[in-house]
Amino acid sequence: MGYADIVEMIEMEVSPRRRRASVFALLATRNAVHLYLDDGKEDNFEDIGIDY
Fold it and tell me: Who contacts 52 (Cβ-Cβ below 8 Å, separation ≥6)?
């Protein structure tokens, strides 16, 4: 799941200024799962389709 999935769910584009905020919870959840699994991975915004 990434930014494109968020856009599909809300059925509209998110302004560039709000893209990072729109997927912050998704990123936090993914990193919590990595921490729980103790797999040594850490996702960042690029992993979910957000460019800096």
Answer: 45, 46
